[in-house]
Structures are given as structure tokens and as C-alpha cells.
């Protein structure tokens, strides 16, 4: 097919009937952009998750290689920068967004990202978007879209930001980096706890990292695969997690070790959380571990592989049955280190107190540490949702501390740096007990560590 960066091929239309006026030629919709448009529709209308909808539509449109990469960047970048783009579109349309048909707005967002953030020639970005609107919505909106995009293309992204952004620091950062203001405030508060030397620059770097495509990181599950095997498949070892290999390109599912479950796709921060649990020193019995909130199972699979080499096993608990099934499927290759996968409420444990030697609490959280990986999350989350999660997070950690034996280790982790979900939960729980010692905490950051913003705390039962 034609290179999507250059726009789709134009159809010659139907041949005119004898004596009649030839119909207006209809432009073919470029498949790469059509797939991107359908993902945006699914996210907006159906509440779909980008990482789930995108692979399905790449398959539907038979896109691979450069075309699939183009569509992936077009979708993810458009959704990440939606807040900034919407303000630019509104300024160039000279009307509020509520007066623009949602289907047209989806296409305008895609066109804006191509014009301002991708290496797509302006004529291709505009003409292909107009073709998309004409094919999916109609001729009238196509003319409107053409006019708006031409105005947008008159300035660079930096010029639009300087022209339209508010002047106050956090409001400017929210606009320039396309984050809701409350998210910027929460991330800034968490970052300030690390006492950075240059807070404005650190915050800018963090927000910019949220808008960058994440690296594809693989994990070589010990006893099943090796870093060398994944390096031979095109990866490069990172050195921080002894099992982490960065894949520079290509489809990871085509790597035999990944396809067979001996290796997996797993952010390095997630690997480090599992290693914090497995690596904590322990005296006495070390036979039975628990992953209290195990879905979808990446950390469970790594823990089970490590446990198997030590003669231990991991029980995976997950409250939602469909997620428990994901854990079961994802840990088949690690079954030697798996005590089982159960569907159960972590707040009403089916096991006796002090049963386990090591417990991981990968608690449900806001997910604000993985905004680069989940582009739609920043527009769906609310500050109120965090408040609603806090009682659950505290209760799960308390359950884990009751379920671990004296001398045993609990790791509490979130894919969020928000202080209320991290140190706030840990402090509240251990402040109400006299049998727990906090041994260490660690906060990872995408702009510092090239990982999701994972938080972990290592606690020991007295």
C-alpha cells in the first residue's frame, strides 16, 4: 500500500453514464488513518482501552511493519495531546468544541497531530484527513476540516503553545504537556517529595516523558529463558533488572520465548517490584508466597519462576474471575513455581492468618504512573476516584500484614506516584500497628528511570 505518511491513493471514481454528468470522485480512505480513526471512536464512544482496541484494528485493516507503527503513533500521540490539540482546534475553528460534530473532531485531532508532531508533509496530513472526513462524515464537514487544518498548519506546536497557553506555572504545564490541571498538581506534589534541585525543570521532564512512547521491555523469566536468548532475538540488556531486555523494534509476540510464555513483555519498573519482594532477606521458612492482587499476572509469572528455582511456590489471588483467567494463562510456563490461581476477595481471605512467607500487594490504584502507556487514562481519571481507592488500598495492605508470618515480608506497590496512594497509605497502616517495620521505600520515575512511575514499600512483620 502507499506510504501513509504521504497520504492515501485517490480513487478515480465511477465512470460517467452516457450523456450524464460524471459523479464527483470519492477519495479512498487510507487504511492506516482509517484504523486510527476507528480506535479514537472506540475509545470515545465505547469506553475502549487503546492498548486493547489498537491491536484488533491493526489486524482488521491488515496493517503491519511501518504502517502499524504509523497508526500506533498516530493514535497514542493524538490521545495523549488531546487537551492541547482541542484548544488549537477551537481557536482555528472560531467556535467551541461543543459546536463541532464529534466524528469530525476525531478526524481533526488526528490531522492536528500529523501537522504538529509527526513527520508528515502538510499537504498529506491535510488532504488525507479531509478524505477521511469526506468518506466517514460527508462533503460539507470536509470543507470545514480543510479550512481548520490549513489554519493549524500555519504555526508550529511551540508557536501555538506560546500563543494560547496560560501564564501561571502549573496551568502552562498542563496546557503545554496536555495533562489535566489536577494531575499536574498531584504529580508535582509527589515529585517535590524527592526534593529535586530544579523543580520546574523536573516537572517539565516528567510531563514530557508521559507523552513519549514507552520502550518495549521484555523479561526473561529465570529457569525458562535467558537474557542471552532475548538478546539474540534483537534485544539489549538494560542492567537494572537482571532479567530486563529492551526490544528495539518488531513484534515481541513473534519471539519464540515470548510466544511460549518463557519470557514476556513487562515494564522494568514492574520487574523491580517483583524483585523487591523476592530479594528481601528472610530468616527461617521461605516456602509459600502470595500475590494478593495478581491480575493480569506479569509479576506473578516472574515471581513463580524465581520461586521455582528456590523450591517455593506462589499462590495467585485475584478478585475478578476474568482477570484470574488471564493470570492462569500467563503463568502456564511458570507452573512449577505456582501453588495455584484462585478467584477471591483479598479483604475476605480464604487462608488462615500468618500463612505466607512473602506477600505482594500490587494494589488497585489511579494508574497515574503509566500515563505514557495508557494514553486515555489522563482524560478518564478524576481526583475523586483516588479518594475512593484509599480505603481499599489501606485494607488490602492490612490484610497482607495479617496474612504474613512473623518475620515475613510484605511489598506494597502502586503504579502511581501520588502521595495519598503511596506513603500516605503505608504511613496510615503501620501507624495503627506495633508489629510492622518499614524497611525501605522507592519511587521510580519515567524521566529518571525510564520505567513507569512505580512505587514500592518493603515492610517486615515483627
Automatic annotation (TrEMBL):
SAM-dependent MTase RsmB/NOP-type domain boundaries: 191-462
InterPro entries tied to this protein: MeTrfase_RsmB-F_NOP2_cat, MeTrfase_RsmB-F_NOP2_dom, NusB-like_sf, NusB_RsmB_TIM44, RCMT, RsmB/NOL1/NOP2-like_CS, SAM-dependent_MTases_sf
A GO MF label: RNA binding
Pfam family, one: Methyltr_RsmB-F
Region span, Disordered: 1-29
Active-site residues, as the UniProt record annotates them: 415 (nucleophile)
Residues annotated to bind S-adenosyl-L-methionine: 293-299, 318, 345, 362
Name of the molecule in the record: rRNA cytosine-C5-methyltransferase
Biological source species: Nocardioides cavernaquae
Amino acid at each position: 500500500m502507499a506510504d501513509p505518511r504521504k497520504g492515501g491513493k485517490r480513487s478515480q471514481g465511477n465512470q460517467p453514464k452516457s450523456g450524464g454528468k460524471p459523479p464527483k470522485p470519492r477519495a479512498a480512505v487510507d487504511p492506516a488513518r482509517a484504523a486510527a480513526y476507528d480506535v479514537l471512536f472506540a475509545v470515545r464512544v465505547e469506553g475502549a482501552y487503546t492498548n486493547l482496541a489498537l491491536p484488533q484494528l491493526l489486524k482488521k485493516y491488515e496493517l503491519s511493519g511501518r504502517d502499524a507503527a504509523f497508526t500506533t503513533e498516530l493514535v497514542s500521540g493524538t490521545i495523549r495531546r488531546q487537551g492541547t490539540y482541542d484548544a488549537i482546534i477551537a481557536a482555528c475553528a472560531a467556535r467551541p468544541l461543543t459546536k463541532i460534530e464529534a466524528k469530525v473532531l476525531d478526524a481533526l485531532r488526528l490531522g492536528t497531530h500529523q501537522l504538529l508532531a509527526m513527520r508528515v508533509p502538510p499537504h498529506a496530513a491535510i488532504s488525507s484527513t479531509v478524505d477521511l472526513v469526506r468518506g466517514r462524515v460527508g462533503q460539507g464537514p470536509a470543507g470545514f476540516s480543510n479550512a481548520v487544518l490549513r489554519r493549524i498548519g500555519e504555526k508550529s506546536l511551540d508557536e501555538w503553545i506560546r500563543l494560547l497557553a496560560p501564564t501561571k506555572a502549573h496551568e502552562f504545564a498542563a496546557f503545554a504537556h496536555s495533562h489535566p490541571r489536577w494531575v499536574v498538581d498531584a504529580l508535582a506534589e509527589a515529585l517535590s517529595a524527592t526534593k529535586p534541585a530544579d523543580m520546574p525543570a523536573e516537572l517539565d521532564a516528567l510531563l514530557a516523558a508521559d507523552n513519549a512512547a514507552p520502550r518495549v521491555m521484555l523479561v526473561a523469566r529465570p529457569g525458562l529463558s535467558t537474557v542471552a536468548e532475548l538478546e539474540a532475538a534483537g534485544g539489549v540488556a538494560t542492567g537494572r533488572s537482571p532479567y530486563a531486555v529492551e526490544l528495539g523494534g518488531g513484534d515481541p509476540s513473534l519471539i519464540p520465548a515470548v510466544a511460549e510464555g518463557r519470557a514476556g513483555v513487562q515494564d522494568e519498573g514492574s520487574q523491580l517490584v517483583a524483585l523487591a519482594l523476592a530479594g528481601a532477606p528472610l530468616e527461617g521458612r521461605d516456602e509459600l508466597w502470595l500475590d494478593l492482587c495478581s491480575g493480569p499476572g506479569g509479576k506473578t509469572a516472574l515471581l513463580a519462576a524465581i520461586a521455582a528455582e528456590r523450591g517455593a511456590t506462589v499462590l495467585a489471588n485475584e478478585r475478578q474471575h476474568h482477570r484470574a483467567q488471564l493470570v492462569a494463562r500467563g503463568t502456564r510456563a511458570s507452573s512449577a513455581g505456582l501453588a495455584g490461581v484462585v478467584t477471591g476477595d483479598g479483604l475476605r481471605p480464604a487462608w488462615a492468618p500468618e500463612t505466607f512467607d512473602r506477600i505482594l500487594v500490587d494494589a488497585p490504584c489511579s494508574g497515574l504512573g503509566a500515563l505514557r502507556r495508557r494514553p486515555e487514562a489522563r482524560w478518564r481519571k478524576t481526583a475523586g476516584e483516588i479518594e475512593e481507592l484509599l480505603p481499599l488500598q489501606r485494607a488490602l495492605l492490612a490484610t497482607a500484614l495479617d496474612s504474613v508470618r512473623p518475620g515475613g515480608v510484605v511489598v506494597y506497590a502502586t503504579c502511581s506516584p501520588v502521595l495519598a496512594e503511596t506513603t500516605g497509605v503505608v504511613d496510615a497502616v503501620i501507624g495503627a500497628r506495633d508489629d510492622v517495620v518499614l524497611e525501605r521505600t522507592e519511587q521510580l520515575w519515567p524521566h529518571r528511570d525510564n520505567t513507569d512511575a512505580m512505587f514500592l514499600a518493603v515492610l517486615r512483620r515483627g
